[in-house]
Amino acid sequence: MQSWLPFPESASTLSSEVDALYLYLCGVTLFFTLLIYGVVIYFVIRYRRRNPSEIPRPIEGSIKLETLWSVIPLLISMTMFVWGAKVYFAQYRPAKNALEVYVVGKQWMWKFQHATGQREINELHVPVGQRVKLIMTTEDVIHDLFFPEFRIKVDVVPGKYTTQWFEATKPGRYHFFCAEYCGMNHSGMRGYIEVMEPTEYENWLSGNANGTSPAAAGRNLYESLGCVSCHGANAEGGRGPALMGLYGSKPVLNNGQSVLADEGYIRESILNPQAKVVTGFGPIMPAFQGQVSEEQLLQVVAYLKSLSTAKPATATEKPPPASAQPSATPKASPKGK
Ligand code: CUA
Hints:
This protein has 337 residues and is α+β, with helices and mostly antiparallel strands. The protein contains seven helices and ten strands.
C-alpha cells in the first residue's frame, strides 16, 4: 500500500485488498462524520432561537425523507458487507496446492514443523509466490498468530485445529506476534518469518534436513500406540475402520449422518473415539486423551493424510484443478480439500 500511510508493508496477495477495504471504511466514516458535524453546526447557527418567545412551527415528518435516509445507509452498509465477505472468504477458504506447515503455540513460543520434517521455533521459512497453509493448535491457552505484513491474524484454540493460508509476494524478513494476551511473557511470544526465493528455500530445506517428516513420525506413533492392532498394519482396517483414504472422505456414522474426515475429525476420533463412531463398528476404541501431545497428534494426522494422497480422490470430492502443481511442493503434501 502507499508508503505515506502508517501501515506495515504489504507483502501478501491479499494484503492490498484488506488495506483497500480498510481505507474505504475509514473514508466513509470520515465523510459522514464531517457531513453530520457540518450540518449540526450549520443548523445550530441557522435555526438558533432569536427571541425568548419564539415557538417553532410543528413538523409533520416526511415519508420521502425517511425512506431516503433508510435506503441510502442500507446501500452503503451492503457495499461494506459484500466487500468484507469477499475478502473474508478469500482468506478463510482452504488453499489448494499449498505447502503445509504445522503450528503449535505454547506459553511462550511458536513451534513450526514443515511437511518435510524441519522444525523451527519462533522462526518460519517459506518460499515467495507460493501458498502456505498453516494448520494450527495450542498446547495450553488461546494464542493468536498475527502477521501484520500479510494482514492475517488467527486464533489457536485448545482442542481444535484452525487453518489459515497466505501467499507472500516479497522476499524479506517480517515480524510476527502473539496477538492474544496469554500470560506473563505474552509480549515475548513473537518471531520472524523469512520469505525466500524458491531456490533459496529449497537450499534451506535441504540444509536442514535433519528431522523425520511428520508423516513418518506419525507412522511410528501409529505402531507404538497400538493403532495397528485394530486398524491394520497398513491402515487397511480390521476391528476398526480402514484409515487408508479416510482423509477428505465422508464416512457414515452409526447415527446415519456423515461427516467430513478433516484434521479436526481425525483429532477428535483419536482423543474421544466415542464422539463419532463409524457405522458398522462398535464403540471399542480407547480414548487417547492425555496420552498424546498436540505435536504427536499432528504427526498422526499427517500420516493418515499421507495415506489418502496415495489413493485416487473419493467420489465425494472434486478432482484437483488442472493448474500447475508448484515444483516446491513436497511429496508429503496432500491435496487440498
Ligand atoms: Cu501467546 Cu499471547
